[in-house]
Amino acid sequence: MCGIVGYLGKKNTKEILLNGLKELEYRGYDSAGIAVLENGNFSNFKAVGKLVNLEEKTKNYSTDGFSAGIGHTRWATHGKPTELNAHPHVGQSSYVVHNGIIENYAKLKKELINDGIKFLSQTDTEVIVHQFEKNLNSASNTFEAFSKTISELDGAYAILLVTKSQPDTIFFAKHGSPMLVGTNNESEQYFASSDTPLIGHCNEVNYFEDGDYGYVSSNNITIFDKDKNKKEPIFSKLSQNKLSAQKDGFRFFMEKEIYEQSDVISDTLMGRLDDDEIIFNELDKKIFDDINEIKLCACGTSYHSAMSASYLFERYSKIRTSLEIASEFRYRNPIMSKDTLFVVISQSGETADTLETLKMAKQAGLKTLVICNVDNSSMVRLADYCILTRAGIEKGVASTKAFATQVTIFWMLSLYIAKLKNSLSVDEISKQISLLREIPTHVKVTDDMHERIKRLSKRYLHGHGFFFIGRDIFYPLALEGALKLKEISYLHAEGYPSGEMKHGPIALADPELFTIALLPQNLLYEKSKNNVEELSARDSTICAISSKEFDKADDFIQISECKDYMLEFFEMMIVVQLLSLEISARLGNDVDMPRNLAKSVTVE
């Protein structure tokens, strides 16, 4: 769960690497480092913590002429966040950066230690550079040594390696972790874990497939596939719009992204709504032939959107729907039948656990669909079908607009399937489509609401925890609200179905337990209200979110009167997102880069 960059060219390599790492810092910020090979000599810099520390260390360094450079921003998997564990890792005359996990590193490390190699770090990555240099001693050329090294690695990886034995070249390998190479008219070559570091530098990019490996020089890109067959790069145009990655005057990227939800949901809906049907040109309607079950598989926030979808599919599409946590599904020998549509959900399209379940489904012969935000990501390329959420770049680690657009897609998809299966009347589908058109209005953040939440947030900075509670589809929203709060405030929070409180959790109720109660007028209001009153009677502090004031609440955040529970869902989504943001901000936390987390989880 790290970000890598690489550069071959005559410009100031340090600046290019650091600027690239800034775009990837959301992927990991325990430590960062760069290594540059110029005129036969390496310059290497590492720093613990955020990228600003590395910038300070390199402020007096620059390159002059052609050089090869690699950089890395780390989220720790093997070994603590220290300078010794930071990448790039060094051998006798080579440096390597790596994203992923080398599963057989312990075996390789033991053999290398027996050969007299001394390790400086606790990481799995360091074995790569030492194994390469071991192979270099017996290989006829540098690439042969690199190829042999890659064949000896088990696990997931994106690797860049630079060595003095071939100083004008960067060697690369990709298996299970994202990586691409970009080029321009100045004979420069750029590597990165995603598109954004390359915007403004490259005209076109090649996305490596799993198993690809090879080398790049200033005028040549040589790629081999997993079967050792040489292949030509397939270039696609790179968007040059970087504005969406800037804060635009907001305090935090997360805040900007909450405010953007009205616009991005409009983009999600665009071209997909007719008067009485949903249009997904990305899908072949035959995908649903002989399908008796939809299986949804995801992690984290995407899992909560999938849980929301399970209510919609069974309610509107009348199709059996099951829900799976990807990290669990991988290892429990699941029964997978071919009458199941396997749907994976991921903001990045690179989430390792979810990607592996997609591979399992493909191997089992299931039809597969991915709901994703990133075109050309690993899941998009692997699945049979893809629906892009069109959320744009999301820089805040705590996901907001990705969740909003995923739920929007699922609402539409439930109606798309309902049309195919005749499970809803034409009039009901038309009514639902009219409601979908209203979402952008209901997710607009008003100054009054934001100010109200900002004032309330100062009351919720202590206590022994939070319960977010809701019924039906508001239960996954409660889970998502609790996740947002714990991610960025570091306060304990749990999401619960409202009706489950009396089955144990209510034992925790006291004035220092804060209950965030989701009370939609259009869905099980009286039932939910009764559950909140049970907590109130035990002196729990209640913050109610509803269009109707609740007299038992200590605090009340009012949403607008809505025609349908789904519009209430989206309005309450905004409230729980803003509440988490404002509590975190008052606590002085880094809202966009919370501790111990990273944006794209590309390790198990």
SSE layout and pairing:
Layout: E1 3-9, H1 13-24, E2 31-38, E3 41-48, H2 51-57, E4 67-74, E5 89-90, E6 94-102, H3 105-114, H4 126-136, H5 142-151, E7 155-163, E8 170-175, E9 180-183, E10 189-192, E11 204-207, E12 213-217, E13 220-224, E14 230-231, E15 235-237, H6 253-259, H7 261-269, E16 293-298, H8 300-317, E17 320-325, H9 326-329, E18 340-346, H10 352-363, E19 367-372, H11 378-382, E20 385-388, H12 401-421, H13 426-442, H14 447-457, E21 465-470, H15 474-489, E22 493-497, E23 513-518, H16 525-537, E24 541-546, E25 555-558, H17 565-586
Parallel strand pairs: 16-17, 16-18, 18-19, 19-20, 21-22, 21-23, 23-24, 24-25
Antiparallel strand pairs: 1-4, 1-10, 2-3, 2-4, 5-6, 6-7, 7-8, 8-12, 9-10, 9-11, 11-15, 12-13, 13-14
Helix pairs in contact: 3-4, 4-5, 7-12, 7-13, 8-12, 8-15, 12-13, 13-17, 14-17, 15-17
The whole-angstrom Rg is 25 Å
Helical stretch count? Answer: 17
For the biggest sheet, the summary is:
8 strands, antiparallel
CATH superfamily of the largest domain: Aminohydrolase, N-terminal nucleophile (Ntn) domain
Q: Helix share of residues?
A: 25-40%
Q: Distance between termini?
A: 9 Å
Mean pLDDT, all residues:
92
Per CATH, what is the topology of the largest domain? Glutamine Phosphoribosylpyrophosphate, subunit 1, domain 1
**CATH classification, class level of the largest domain:** Alpha Beta
**Uncertain parts:** none
> How many strand units?
25
Count of the separate structural domains: 3
Percentage beta strand: 15-25%
Choose one word for the global shape.
globular
**What is the CATH architecture assignment of the largest domain?**
4-Layer Sandwich
Strand order of the largest sheet: 3-2-4-1-10-9-11-15
